[in-house]
Amino acid sequence: MALYKLEEFAANYRDADLDNYDIKNFDVYSDINNDKVGTVKYILLDDSGRFRYLVVDTGFWFFGRQVLLPIGRSRIDYNNRCVYAKGLTKEQVENLPDFNDLEQIDYNYEERVRGVYRTPLAQTPLETSTPVNAPPVSSDRQSSVAHDRNTYRYEHEPNLYDMNEQDHQNLKLYEERLVANKSRVKTGEVSVGKHVASETARVSVPVEKERVVIERTTPEGGARTVSSAEPDFREGEVTRMGIYEENPDIHKEAVLREEVKVKKVVEQDNVEAQDTLRREELDIDKSNER
């Protein structure tokens, strides 16, 4: 099963409802002799979002090393901002493989880690892993139980991966926040359309007509004698003159009279609101402390 760092698995984990998430940079102590081991560097989760390991920077015991601590082997003290590694010894840390990046973690790597924590040491009696549906193994002897890599589940070893209420208590403090959101509502509608209006129009067009005017005149002084060569008597002589007139051509044509553009503009306004917010504060009673 793949593992992820908490901040990569849930980018907004500080706003999420994840139990026991705020332990990064907590100091880590061995519960055997209260020696400081180092600090919590990362929290590793599996695909289901369950906590599986704490990555401990062992700067106090082994400078520059980071090792995995199964979550079931930890006891978290939120009041003092520290984590107690149950039964952790220098010998175990020395035998643990180094953690460098997530890509190196596979079943074989985790088996090396689990093998260290499965082995009870003289300093502290550690529990022995027991597969699901198997009979309990006596705590007075060391057991080596083989696991199938194809069927192995973290639930098979609750002593390594369970987060019990006694060791992983988390008191959540809530507060109210004033959240301002916006919702888009329809407050009205503007409809822009067009219709056809009709009216009677009159137009006047001047037209011209030609007509023939025939004028007959008598020479001044009356008839006069002309030379014999001037008269040209021709039978059937006709003079023609064309007569024209203008006919009005009246018709309708469509023209673009006006163009209307419809658009929206956004006007901004600030709406202020206030309310009384409540917040839970932590009260620590040390009256029974010795």
CATH topology grouping of the domain at 3-13 and 21-161: Photosynthetic Reaction Center, Chain H, domain 2
Biggest sheet architecture = 7 strands, mixed
Helical amount: under 10%
Shape: rod-shaped
In the CATH hierarchy, what is the superfamily of the domain at 3-13 and 21-161? Photosynthetic Reaction Center, subunit H, domain 2
Write the CATH architecture name of the domain at 3-13 and 21-161.
Alpha-Beta Complex
Mean pLDDT, to the nearest integer, reads 79
The topology string of helices and strands comes to EHEEEEEEHHH
CATH class of the domain at 3-13 and 21-161: Alpha Beta
Radius of gyration: 53 Å
- Total number of strands: 7
- Helix count equals 4
Distance between the termini: 45 Å
Going by helix content, strand content and strand pairing, the class is: mainly beta
